[in-house]
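User: Continuing from earlier, I have the next pair ready.

Assistant: Great, send them over.

User: Here they are, in order.

Assistant: Folding the first of the pair now:
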Amino acid sequence: RRTRLHAKAWLFHRTSGSSTAYIGSSNLSTAALHDGLEWNVRLSAQDNEGILAKFQATFESYWEEGEFEPYRASEIEQRRFDRASANETSSDATPLSFFDIRPYAYQQQILDKLSAERSLHGRWRNLVVAATGTGKTVIAALDYARQAGPGHPSLLFVAHRREILQQSLATFRQVLRDGSFGELLVDGQRPSQWRHVFASVQSLAGIDPADLAPDTFAVVIVDEFHHAASASYERWLRHLSPVLLLGLTATPERTGGEDILHWFDGRIAAELRLWSALEQGLLTPFHYFGLHDGTDLSRIEWRRNGYATEALSNMYTADDARLRLILRELAAKVTNLDSMRALGFCVSVEHAHWMARKFVAAGLRAAALDASSPREQRAEQIRRLRSGELQILFAVDLFNEGLDIPEIDTVLFLRPTESAIVFLQQLGRGLRLHPSKSCLTVLDFIGQAHRSFRFDLRYRALLGGTRDQLEQQIKDGFPFLPAGCSLQLDRVSSERVLSNLRESLPTRRPQLLAEARRLGRCSLAALLEPGEFYTGAGSWALLQRELGWVAAGAASGEPSEDEKRLGRGIAAGGLLHLDDPERLRWLVDQLRRPIAPDSANFDPAAERSWRMLLAQLWGSGRQHVPLADALVRLWAAADLRAELVELFELLIERTDHLVAPLDWDRTNPPPIPLKLHGRYSRAEVFAAFGLLNEARPFPGREGVFFDEAAQCDVFFITLKKSERLFSPTTRYNDYAISPWEFHWESQSLTREASATGQRYIHHRERGSRVMLFVREENKRGGVTLPFLCLGFADYVSHEGERPLAIRWRLHRAIPAAFVPQLALAI
């Protein structure tokens, strides 16, 4: 699937510690090492300890990665090896032999998200969005295989082509290890049992839905679900009542505006992000150039859906100044203009045809298409583009989705595109892999934007992260991109985008007040993303009070000191990471009660859960308020409690991964209200272990503590240590080797023979446990990051001392969504 591993590097371990690495062009052969003129670098552990350590860590990560498999001599393995090395694909509907199909990491992420949608939110109508070539059918088959039911639940799989149905049936048979599974309903073939049916939509069109009971199929899977807006799909979807409906598509948005998300409660259940696909080598890397075009769009009329199209089109076609800039930049940025195959996205039909005429006049082979173009004309122009007869096609939202021209190597954004979905769809037209191209060239022409236009939507869809992180990325020149990708904004474009970021979002309190008054009484989510709001805007409850939106009977006037303090605690963003739905629902139920609960009646787990919350509200746990007093003061702040309820309900709705109880493997587990794969602050973990109360001060920033009562070592691990926050003696070497194993270095002075070292190494024999909490970095966007609870781990082996480099085996695998964050940062 990807370029094969072709590392020319060798690491020789020596028990003396004087290990040696050779990096260069040599194969490990006599001719290469003795006779050939090769170029190599020799590194020794004494002089290059850090490089050798990273060398070894990188190799271990590759070795444990699922894509690399051990070869064992057998007839089955030999056939697999022969097929892989010959890069052949069998055309048989049924494979000759079965072997286990394991999902790639990105596929497992999607499967995990589907589990969360169903288990946490009870949503059994799910849409999966992933690019062509990412194995959506494999995901569907693996998802189906884990559904309960004798002999597998009844299934209807719908696609629009026979070839897709045959490949899908073969995939399901392979995953289920059942060569007789499923029947085809296509091109005259009809099923006899009607239990597991793979049907073309054309064949279904010839059947009256009334002939089948609505509950005939427990599971319905529709491939290329974006076609489901058509009548042939619609009547079957309305008739059937499956337990589970799964839609697969590369694009959730139709050009004609037809809605497909209404089948899924308006939600996309799981989506393969562009970054993940690029890092997996599933898409072509892009070279993006943001170029100022000299236009001033700030005075163009702004409507509900963006710029007034007619005015924008008139500006772009008024003279040739912008055209000359586009032609000049195209010639400068595209290596071979003659062989270019490009798409240009325009603002209007007039703009598209004007651009085509001007390009032809400039000597380029160009044409234009729009929604009114006859089907035959579209097909002919696409054929000409693919063959190289045309260099560029100009279009108006015509090729946002559904176009499969892998040869496209250049994309021109000739109009401002605010919609993140449309931007990614248009970019995606050129990201398909093809032997004729090594990268996609993207030219985005940027003018002086209207203050209501939001550049952050498109770039955050591309890069992820918060608005503050995006601003920092732009200032730093986008240092964190997948291999082979580049993203460049010229000086003027960079200044314009940064200025737009600061002006377009109401993040300061006066701006928020003005925006809220414009919107009228609304929810926090309607005003702004919580992650954006809680970055200096203060408390939502207190802002509503200032706006005069306070409900009848609630407090009014200036906030009390307790309200200010609680407001600061909420506004600090220290609650946004909460992701345990069970605990959040319990807190919502408690906070809605009219009278403060009596702390004297709390069981230990409830008491600790309250202390976890109050540690975040009352100064991050560093300043303590007695529990009973803190609860009374919280209940007196009715507006602040209402804000917490609104925030917690929003967090429940947005939880996208599963947490699980910790396996203490005891008859009477300790009352520690933490969950496996939940996220917690350091103060919350201390409170959960009962180490944070009126009698105990905040323990500080220790990386490790041992709890006598639970007989548990707790490690707080930050992977990216900055020079400013960590001294050389605390710059440890920590990373996930694989989803099951973690490499950790102890404090710098820990020796093997010390009591601490012996406790780590022999913890199982002594009846104690080790629990890992990990985060990528200390702070992001000014907000302290929480730790992910990886749960319990067992000692495997260690190397060296002062520090000890220990390999831990986790009891439960790291969820696929978190693995890229915790793996080795090369």
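And the other member of the pair:
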Amino acid sequence: METFTHLFVCSFFFSLLRTSITQDSTITASQSIRDGGTLVSAGGSFQLGFFSPGNSKSRYVGIWYVISPEIVVWVANRNAPLNDRSGILKVTGDGILVLLNSTNGIVWSSNTSRRPENPVAQLLDTGNLVVKDKDDDNKDNILWQSFDYPCDTHLPEMKLGWDLVTGLDRFLSSWKSTEDPAQGEYSIRIDPRGLPQRVFMKGDSIKTRAGSWNGLGFTGRGLRPNPVYEYGFVLKEKEVYYEYKLLNKSVFSRYVLNPSGVAQRFNWVDRTHSWEPFFTSQADACENYAVCGGYATCNINNSPVCACLEGFLPKSPKQWDSVDWSGGCVRRTSLKCEDGDGFWKHKGVKLPDTSSSRFNKSMTLKECEEMCLKNCSCTAYASLDVRGEGSGCVMWFGSLVDTRQFSEGGQELYIRIAISELGMISLLCRLEKKRHSNKKKLVGIIVGSTLLVVGMIIVGLVLYIWKKKLRNQEMTKRNQMKDCDNESAKEDMELPVFDLATITNATDNFSNSNKLGEGGFGPVYKGTLPEGRDIAVKKLSNNSRQGLNELKNEVILIAKLQHRNLVKILGCCIQENENMLIYEYMPNKSLDCFIFDQAKSKLLDWHKRINIINGVAKGLLYLHEDSRLRIIHRDLKASNILLDNKMNPKISDFGLARSFGGDQIDSETNRIIGTYGYMSPEYVMHGQYSVKSDVFSFGVLVLEIVSGKKNKGFCHPDHQLNLLGHAWELWIEDKPIEFMDDLVGDLRTLSNVLRHIHVGLLCVQQRPEDRPNMSSVIQMFSSESLLPKPKQPGFFTYSPKADSCSTKHGTCSANEMTTTIIEAR
């Protein structure tokens, strides 16, 4: 029978091939595996053999899933490929695995420190290849195992970390590419310096840091109990490692670091016979290592995201104001040490980099504080283990780097500051809590504080009066907001309120020369604030089909979202008869101004179009999976994709968006709101919407970007199909190249363009369950793996404007209104 030559073949063919060439789970010193032979684990879960990834002609020895042979979880000779099919894998009498080439030269080998009497190699049902003595079943006497040398996949029961006796470092490392399993530039490992912590690296540099283990999880990663697996961290004198174990042995789960540096967890779903993403690492601004410098904290919900810790000031105010926070912060008041310092407690934080820390498992938190206070070099301390009442001690020496503030989760960190600074901070906090108290109570509190000098009291009073004046001004503005019911009043809406006069002056009294366009909400104007900052002002028109509820909805949702591919809201103005939202200004307006304009579309080469597609996909992924609430946009379209000065896309207009709870999958409504041509079939016909509704809209958008044509009102001289129908007809006729815009690019980009058309068609399938989720979409764009065959799109219909076709492109769809339909149910 013909030998197995390529990894990416269908499982059915692979199973037929295996019946004639498979050996059992063990090979002895008198046996070997030649190219074409395989080894199957006793439980039938994993298989070992020779393979060639993708279109590569190089041969490797690897381990893969029997149910999914295209998924290789370990490669022996990843950095030393064979050039032909003459490879032989065998066990020597010394208990060493060797891979030989056609001249019997050793291409790759394992190692061992002792010689067994009867060595065998065995593939376990965990996916671990071990070398041991045949008659010794003691797991601790394994001579060598593949689990000690991970590649890009972390399997259950595989340790990631260090053997501190032998110096063995077990870490994940990406493939160089999908066709080259050699060690790539990305890695995930345990940094053993100080208190061990998990880090993600590019080359020799830390890119992100999950942090140290606090008994429940890594302080920078909110690991929560789940029905699939349990996890744990071992910190002993001889070893330190992280591992996870499956709660149900019949489930397959893997954690993979792909060549692009994206880490994902996949679970096998028997119903669909496919790997479904369970988790995808997403790096927001605060994930970047030390983005705020020393003695600063990063909060993705704030703008700007970086802020100095209490008692600290920017080292370089000029750089700080220019959004360069790398210099960090410095103490406002120097430590006194012998004269006494104190500690300020910060709640809900990711602990700083622990590479220069020290720890003690037996200390109490009080003993930790005393120990830190005695050492003038100690800058902070925290509990080592937060379970129960907490235990253990970790202390920092030197600058505190890569601290992050969470709205949920995190732990307490005690930072050393001067006593005088501690007193000032305490006073300001008490004044803040007592802002509604009368002046007599305030004076009593201040006089009763014997720790503060008279001058500090005066400073505190001045600060209080100043803060109270600002709060009163803010309260006056908020009282001017109308239609604020009890439900919306409960929302934590920390958004700046602009004065109407300021916005009127900024837009030159809403002059037509400053008008950027108009949508369902109303007109949008460009403005310039007194300090010179350009803004975009969305003004609710009196005859708008959307109203104050949509405005409130957008404010509440988008104010809580922070992502580079979402438009940033700066504030609102609800005063007199005006209701407005103020955004960052996007100089290139919206995507439809380019993609559907015959002249401007020439500025969008394929590289720019890919960047726009990927940016929108990442923004949607954040909304669907990585934001604090699961957000369904419900009105994704070309006119709601804004472009900054570098043509980077930002999703806008959240007036129709809805938030879901963590366990909620879909919802229904009697009020169908959206834009024809982008709405999914189940939403238009049944009022049902979910994340897959956004995926449908995204698919339409991808096909529009590739073709440069609108879905709604699309015209073709040879038929009366809409854009989706046209794309499908060309696809099934094997002529998808005719679908692409003539301006897209040359033959070098052809395969990538066709892949985007393929993914676009997968996104617009009729049934929601047939459409991929956004994490899968991003994976499809970034990989070269085979894609499933698309089915006929939803709304495979005739175009209502086919009888009046025009060959001219449209212009900016500023008047493309959002549609509202009231249905009886």
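Worth noting for the second one:
The chain has a mean pLDDT of 82. The chain has six domains: 1-149, 156-283, 286-433, 439-479, 486-584, 592-822.
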